[in-house]
Amino acid sequence: MIQRKEVVLSVLGELQEATESAGLDALTRVALEVDRVLAPFELPETPCQDFPEWAGVDDTAHGLYPPDAPRSLLPLNCKGEGNLLFDAVSMLLVGNTGLSLELQ
């Protein structure tokens, strides 16, 4: 069975090629195909509740919390590969950065 990451990388390549072609029709056609191909790969609907042990609290970010910030929320360390927004969202959803590229 083809893995999720392989499918995402494949459709990203197709989208890149379509953006380099002339006309909006080719891009629209590829975007609709990408939507169909990615439809079976659902994203989690609830945040991850089981974070790995290595995902500790980011002490620097925690030090920047205002005094009235909710005490039950803590910033986690997120060791990403460049785009930390999507890495952080992936971390929240699945407990790792595995969905970062797909979310981008």
Main structural class: mainly alpha
Give the CA-CA distance, first to last residue.
24 Å
Radius of gyration: 18 Å
Biggest beta sheet summary: none
Order of helices and strands: HHHHH
The number of distinct β-strands equals 0
Quote the beta fraction: under 5%
Task: Work out the helicity level.
Answer: 40-55%
Q: What is the mean pLDDT?
A: 79
What is the count of helical runs? 5
Shape: elongated
Any low-confidence stretches, pLDDT <50, length ≥5?
none
Task: Give a nutshell description of this structure.
This protein is mostly helical. The protein has helices at 4-19, 24-38, 59-63, 84-94, 100-103.
Keywords summarizing the entry:
single chain; 104 residues; 49% helix; elongated
Question: In words, what does this structure look like?
Answer:
This protein is mainly α. It has five helices and no strands. The protein has helices spanning 4-19, 24-38, 59-63, 84-94, 100-103. The mean pLDDT is 79.
